[in-house]
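Help!! Second protein's tokens look totally different from the first
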Amino acid sequence: MRRLTPRPSRARRGGPVLVRGALPGVLVARPGALAAPGDARRARRVARQLRPERPPRLLRPPQGHSDVLVLRWEDGDRAFAVKSPRTARAAAALARERDVLGALAADGRLDADWRALLPAPVDSRLGAAPPFLVQEWRPGTPADALLAHRPQDTALITRLAVDAVERLHRATGTVRPSTAALLDGWIGPRLAVLAHRLPWCRSGPGAAGLAAVRRRLHRGLTGRPTAVGWTHGDFAPGNVLLDAPPGRVTGLVDWAGAVPDGPVEVDVCTFLLGLGRIRDGLGWGAQVVAALRAGLPAPAGAALPPAEIVLLTWLWHVSANLQKSWRFAHDRDWLRTTVVPVLAEAARAEAAAAGGAAAAAPRGGAPAGPLSAAPPPGRPRPTG
């Protein structure tokens, strides 16, 4: 794999670390100071590996919650994403993404136009110190930004995004009955992630909620014809790039959670839940609880997913977040709004169906308990 050489930096020594010179325009943001000294040091060490004889000094960290330092590198008329994991979990996720992109690029069932939407791997040094990965930087604007600023184009953006991912599903998917063994492979390991990472889920209401989710998914999906194929796994609006104004999809990114034999319906459902967050300000927990009670509304042109697919999508989402970063397990606000209400609703609905005492739907959000406290001060607050 060809190794690339960044352009030299023209920064003054001793001044603030700014985005100029070697890696301008990082993350579509205005050039600014590095947020943390650790990020600045890591960026410089990565740059020395990219070009040992004259390493650039000026890089920029990502914005928001992430265990991966992402930088944009412009080299002539080409641009690249340089990703350096901060944790072992993040390094494993980048290795999975590298392998997935390689498998998709080599999959003869996919046409060249669709494969051109992928960020092509350029260099992988995940065994280096610090580790990093270089990918092609895909052009375009994330769909979540377009949806926020051009709500009048919601139906068009949704159709373009759904069409792009369904091309993958049609090319690689086959319809088969959802057997108990197939569902166990999708559900069991992801429920185990919640039980392992969240002590609240190991006993009491949390464990009861996990058991209710398992039973509802098996009851609602066993025997149901299901399309199985390459599944992105995190097909949120932020991972779909489009030209602006929206006319075509220009990139599909963040493939660390993709699997070749997943339930492809979770991709479209993930996009719709992300759309609901942007359009209506509703988080995942509130939307999934509403879907379990009355179904999930969908914009024109998108099929209405069954409640069990919404629940399976939620399980895919929360388990993936817990696997990729410890921050989610320690963020009580995320747990209180995204995890606890869904587990409580699954247990309540099961009790109601059995004629139990919990037949009335609870008012408000999560039940009182250890997760109803405010998040610990100083913790980063994940979204979704």
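Here's the second one for comparison:
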Amino acid sequence: MKKVLSLKVLFLCITICCYSLQPFGANCSFPLLELSAEAASHPAIIKNVRHGIQKGFTRVVIDLEKKTSYKEIFVEDNSQLIIDFPSAQFARGSRFKKDRHLQDITVKKITYNSLNGSNDQVVFDLGEYESYRVYSLGNPFRVVVDIFNPLPGSKKKHTAITTIKPKNIIVKTKKNIVEKKEVHKIRKPLDNLLNKKSQIQKIPKGLINRSELTIVIDPGHGGKDSGAVGLYGLKEKHIVLDIGKRLRNIFKYKYKCKVVMTRDRDIFIPLKERTRLAEKYNASLFISIHVNATRRNIANGIETYFLSPAKSESALETQARENIIVGGKEDRSSSDLDFIFASMKNTQKVNESSLLAGSIQKSIIGDVKKKYKRVRNLGVKTAMFVVLFGASMPSVLIESAFITNPREAKRLKTSNYRQVLADSIYKGVENYLKQTTIEYNVKR
């Protein structure tokens, strides 16, 4: 009897609650859905378009009030670069009503097109340029367009690069008539570097004056920064310093070129000071040597990096570890991270860094496999290493083994393995120099 009564009371309470809450729930659910839909359809506002001429390139920054999607379109016939915002519109005012005619070798004019209420475009009429890059940054959200000046002696209006199958894109004409126009979207050189199926054209061969070469070798970490600590009491700072010294001796006595080390003893050098030193000596190449580490002691292998956004979880993990400054925090300097490519004079340097990384990686794997078993090739990768920021010369970072892997840590303990690494890095650099003409081997 008590059980039945309890159930009835419970049922009555539930009924009263549901009845009392029903109007509130009914009234609130639909407005919430409407607000959500309204927020999704509300176009972003293009607040400003800033233009500035830098050393070696022109930068245009498109400021928006919030994050939104955009498309990058290249009209080859007119040499026009279009940044299309499907869900954005220009802020009210006179600043976007007139075309901007610029006294700029790379960008002749900027036009503001409004296709409909929420689809606006920023159109660049390009002059003479070598290549361009489009990317977005956050906090606040903005789209950045870098157009690089033509290389010295080049008369081309733009870099010859592979096109993708053309498609119809809506483009507004000068007569304010919307029409369909067949355009080619250009695959930029940086995209090609990261696309395994694409082929990178070799830079023309040329003579190299060895006496005019300056190679900067950067043994990672040092002093109060031990780097990775692995098995058998090994510390990254000691291992890479030894490899760096061996590599320096090979270059000095075998290649007869100038060699500068960022550190030749156990001292601490801040990450950004290392590439600044390379710039000071007008370096031809920058080679940073490291060993890898992870919590998973089964991880093993050799990999070589050049500067570009990380494309895998493992690359992000390595990037975070190498970017840690003393105190255990990752260096996230906004000025460097936001404008990572600003200091690179042109896309050619990205190409050269990729080629250098590939040549070194191939040489290390080939030589190590001849003398050791179970060698894993992790390939050439990209990541945002602070130590490579600001480098205007081809630059790479080598992760020569895993100090946390029992087999590879045992090898790192031996002078024989470290000598093999130094020899193979030298061969990789030598092969790279044989197949490329480098602008930086001429005194500037």
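Reply: Different proteins will give different token patterns, so don't panic. The two ends are 101 Å apart (CA to CA).
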